[in-house]
Specification:
Number of strands: 10
Number of helices: 0
Largest sheet: 4 strands, antiparallel
Radius of gyration: 13 Å
Shape: globular
Distance between the termini: 24 Å
């Protein structure tokens, strides 16, 4: 929506910042290890939050309420990046295990 920023951390969490208020408005206890990547995806009216972690997983979160929608596991090493197609039908993850995985978001 242009007013929120997400950051990942070595404390295994993601923080959601409100740029209008200049403060952290929510902390997501996201993973079991360092969060390597996070981003908002989708449209302002249909947005999700994506995270990747050293715990070998990537996750999809609801923008409203910050609830986990899906956990993607299957890599054998740290997941360094996650992205999705514009309609959120496909998700891609990239890992230190020298693979990328293409997932369908059903």
């Amino acid at each position: 929506d242009g007013y929120h920023l997400g950051t990942g951390s070595e404390d295994h969490s993601c923080k959601i910042w409100d740029l209008r208020q200049h403060k952290c408005i929510y902390t997501i206890p996201a993973h079991n290890n360092t969060v390597t990547f996070c981003k908002f995806a989708g449209t302002p009216t249909n947005s999700t939050f994506l995270t990747a972690s050293y715990d070998h997983t990537a996750k999809i979160w609801s923008h409203k309420g910050w609830m986990p929608l899906k956990s993607l596991s299957g890599h054998d090493n740290k997941v360094m990046c996650i992205d999705c197609s514009w309609e959120k039908k496909y998700i891609v993850t990239i890992s230190y295990d020298r693979t990328f995985k293409l997932w369908t978001n059903k």
